[in-house]
Amino acid sequence: MINNEIPSDSEFKEMRESWRIKMGESKLLRDKAIELTILSDKYKYGYQWEWCGVPIIRHPDDIVLQQEIVWSLKPTHIIETGIARGGSLLLSWSLLQICVGQGKVLGLDNKIFEHTVKKLKPWLDKDQIYIYEGDSTSTEASVHVKKFLENNTEPVLIVLDSDHTHSHVFNELNIFAPLIPIGSIIIVADTIIEEMPTDYYPNRSWARGNNPLTALNSFLEINNNFKRDERWSRRSLMGEFRDGIAIKIT
Question: Which DSSP symbol is given to 207?
Fold first, then answer.
């Protein structure tokens, strides 16, 4: 390519935005992405990755997407429900250091495993990552979140990735929504469940019609102070967050 064919920064920005919109609107591409997701799930693709040596149960597309969100939002507080093996908490903490230069992370889960605590111990000991064992929809968890956000007035990032049933995610959204400042972003994980084949999760309590996407849709119908964040909601190709990102607007 010769120099006069190289787009300027503003032209390249417009081009990328056009590509993103077209990709997000392509049903054929999305169908192929779901097909690839199903095929790769036979090899537990989403369980194969690590972040800084700690297992992270997240697709690479969504890892990069979270980086873009943190860089744009510049939060100093990130809250996650669902800790698993700890990699996502470490991802959030490291992104805060890269994008903001400071910050702390709170993870909540019904059960926190000993091996997870051991992996996170260097950050737990330095009060960089905090963990709370208990139901994320409980009054106790709400109190814990309020304390974590005490004196913070800037937008925060929340990642909901625990129990994926409609009722649980809906309750999480309603509990956390009043606690976060305007401009805060909520990532609702595993909205992809609504796009997977019927009965794809035979041993789980969630399925089509009963999952994080249905919960978020119901939440947005009755909460006018939130809206779906179109900047991010269809950015991942093989991602689990499609149409699952919301921002607090008032």
Answer: B
Cα distance between residue 39 and residue 186, in whole Å: 29
Average pLDDT, the chain: 96
175: CB partners within 8 A, 6+ apart: 136, 137, 141, 142
Distance in angstroms (rounded) separating the CA atoms of residues 154 and 186: 14
Sheet of 129-133: strand order equals: 129-133, 104-109, 77-81, 157-160, 185-188, 245-248, 226-228
pLDDT over threshold 70, residue 147: yes
Q: What is the pLDDT of residues 95-127, one digit of tens each?
A: 999 999 999 999 999 999 999 999 999 999 999
Residue 2 pLDDT > 70: no
SS3 139: helix
Q: How many CB atoms lie within 10 A of CB 32?
A: 13
Task: Give the right CATH number for 8-248 from 1.20.120.450, 3.40.50.1000, 3.40.50.150, 2.120.10.30.
Answer: 3.40.50.150
Which DSSP category does 7 fall into?
P
Mean pLDDT value of segment 173-178? 97
Cα dihedral 67, 85, 155, 245, rounded to 10, equals: 70
Global pTM?
A: 0.95
State which H helix or E strand residue 220 sits in: helix 212-222
